[in-house]
Amino acid sequence: MGRVIAALPVRDQLDLQVELGGLAASARIGDSIALSGVCCTVVEITGEVGLFRLSRETLERTWLGRAVPGTRVNLEGALRVGEALGGHLVQGHVDGVGKVVSSIDPKEGGDLGLSVPDTLRRYCVEKGSITVDGVSLTIAGIDGATIRIAVIPHTAQVTTLGGLPAGTPLNLEVDVIAKYVETMLSARFPDRAVADD
């Protein structure tokens, strides 16, 4: 985890200064680092603080534009060729923002309930993958617009997910393979294409 040091508006964009924690020693200008699931580029490094310029697109699709000094973010460096792939394929391309419906204990974890936007719900299946604020997770159950994720104690303790109050916005990235399959099937069977909600 890291912490936002400053959020500085630059025209229609935003500069975020973030403490990089354990990533600081290896971070270089031009590297991609996910900030709570959002693939961002390091544009400057001062000690253990990285500077990231967030585009208007990023500000419109994620909650990072609401970040203030002290906001905690999950940090993850890009996967390098040859490294083991754990979890599922995560690109850092946020599809939308959901909200916490039911929170979990910051030490023990538990069942995290999230509301998912209508446009993303069709990509959510029980035992399928979803990325929540950059954390690769498995959907344990679905009840209407709410998905349930069983969060183990370790995940609750080492990510920002532990103890978030109801209503907290979260960046969501659905499974990219599901999106590709939908696009390919829509092209092959245009009369049966799934319409956006």
Structure description:
The protein starts with a strand and ends in a 9-residue tail after the last helix. The model has no long low-confidence stretch (mean pLDDT 91). The chain has a seven-stranded antiparallel sheet. It contains four helices and 14 strands. The chain is 15% helix and 39% strand. The chain has 197 residues and is mainly beta. It has two domains: 2-77, Elongation Factor Tu (Ef-tu), domain 3 (Beta Barrel); 96-192, Elongation Factor Tu (Ef-tu), domain 3, CATH 2.40.30. It is globular, with a radius of gyration of 17 Å.
**Helical element count?**
4
Proportion in helices: 10-25%
**What does the overall shape look like?**
globular
SSE pattern:
EEEEEHEEEEHEEEEHEH
Number of strands: 14
Strand content: 35-45%
The rounded distance between the terminal residues' Cα atoms is 34 Å
CATH topology of the largest domain: Elongation Factor Tu (Ef-tu), domain 3
Largest sheet: 7 strands, antiparallel
How much is the radius of gyration in Å? Answer: 17 Å
Under the CATH scheme, the architecture of the largest domain is Beta Barrel
CATH class category name of the largest domain: Mainly Beta
Reading side by side through the largest sheet, how are the strands ordered?
A: 6-1-2-5-4-3-7
What structural category arises from helix and sheet content?
A: mainly beta
| Low-confidence runs of at least 5 consecutive residues | none
Give the number of domains: 2
Q: Average pLDDT value?
A: 91
